[in-house]
Amino acid sequence: MILQTLTAFSNRFGSDPELVLAGGGNTSAKDGNTMYIKASGTSLATITPDGFVAMDRQKLDAMLHKRYPSEDAAREAAALADLMDARLPGQNAKRPSVETLLHALFPVRYVLHLHPALVNGLTCAVDGAAWARRLFPNAVWIEASKPGYILAKLCYERMTQYKAETGRDADCLLLQNHGVFLADDDADALGEKLQKMLDTLRAHCAFSPDFSPAAAEDPDLGERLAALYGKGSVYRFCGASEAVRFAASEEAMRPLTEPFTPDHIVYCKAHPLYLPTGCDIQTAFADYRAKYGFAPRICYVQGSGFYALSDSERSVDAAVLLALDAIKIAVYCRAFGGALPQSAALTDFIVHWEVEAYRARQAQ
Ligand SMILES: [Zn+2]
Asked: Of 44, 153, 244, 296, which has the fewest beta carbons less than 10 angstroms from its beta carbon?
């Protein structure tokens, strides 16, 4: 029954594009000593009961009190090995979400974790923490942190502190430059909590992004950029009004030059390329490649919006979705003091972590 309820609300939230993009977000449910968590590589929109991994809660709790190496790669490798070991018998074909431990922190039945643009308008804003205190006094604010075990440990400490101060278990975490966790014993109440949060944010955001068409695609330019990206690459064009506005000048582009969340790094790369009118595109491309070591996935073109580039249809479509998500966040955050991207140090960490994770996948 619990798995059916979990599947139903996962499908409901997962099929709302305002809430879930390109596989982001995860859900869980607890039943006695078992916690069911979304497996990596599954989508909330289409997940079936079989798409959840059954985990041993005692083993997950033990991870919070264990001493791991302080060096990043060694710590994450050891924590990942323990996470895999916390799978119940018969679950070895599935890989639990990297955010599993965060779900285990809540002593209630259902947990929902999402990265909605509306919420991230708050979590990626200069005055986000102050506004969070004002609008959501019962939420626990979690400052930006390295992902993985370090983030889970930080949340554990903040939640313990919250309980000591208020006598209550935290049921809402707002994670800076990341998203939101909500928890409840009742699945309907969980949906209502999310709805209330979104309504509050919507009522507060005086600015909403305008995605009406404003500029036309230049197919020659699209082909040229795709060819520069690599042989057999594909492109998508976005000439929506808001994209054209950001592309108006380097100054207008500023809120989009650094990534807001890890999702933007994973799907769009950490930085877009800006092409002012009349620039030498080939040189700009080569300079970008020399600086970062790879080709740009998002190219903003002055006066006309952006071109997304990648080597597959699936990847280029995800890049468009996340580039639009960044635009939404950049607009929403104006209501909370303006854009606060991830720190350069955190971006650097995630870029390298991604490379390592990719290498590990290739090596399997
Ligand atoms: Zn997340």
From this structure: 153
pLDDT at 20: 84
Instruction: Give the neighbor-by-neighbor strand order of the sheet with 234-238.
Output: 234-238, 305-310, 298-301, 273-275
Query: pLDDT band at 319, cuts 50/70/90?
Result: very high
Q: Distance, CA 277 to ligand 1 centroid (Å)?
A: 37
pLDDT digits (tens, 9 = 90+) for 56-80: 999 999 999 999 999 888 898 899 9
Kindly state the tokens that stand for 254.
Answer: 């500023």
Q: Which CATH superfamily is domain 219-363 in?
A: Class II aldolase/adducin N-terminal domain (3.40.225.10)
Cβ within 8 Å of residue 149, ≥6 positions away: 63, 68, 75, 76, 79, 101
Nearest of 272, 264, 265, 266 to residue 325 by alpha carbon: 264
Residue 1 CA to residue 104 CA, distance in Å, equals 20
Per residue in 259-297, pLDDT tens?
A: 999 889 989 999 999 999 999 999 999 999 999 999 999
* 226 C-alpha to ligand 1 centroid (Å): 31
Ligand 1 center to 272 CA (angstroms) = 22
Global confidence as pTM: 0.94
Report d(CA 199, CA 251) in Å as an integer: 31
d(CA 354, CA 55): 25
CA of 126 from ligand 1 middle (Å) equals 20
Residues of the chain with CATH 3.40.225.10: 2-204, 219-363
What's the rounded Cα separation, in Å, for the pair 128 and 121? 8
Q: Which two tokens stand for residue 2?
A: 């619990």
Phi, psi (deg, nearest 5) at residue 270:
-65, -30
CATH for the stretch 2-204? 3.40.225.10
- CA 101 to ligand 1 center in whole angstroms: 12
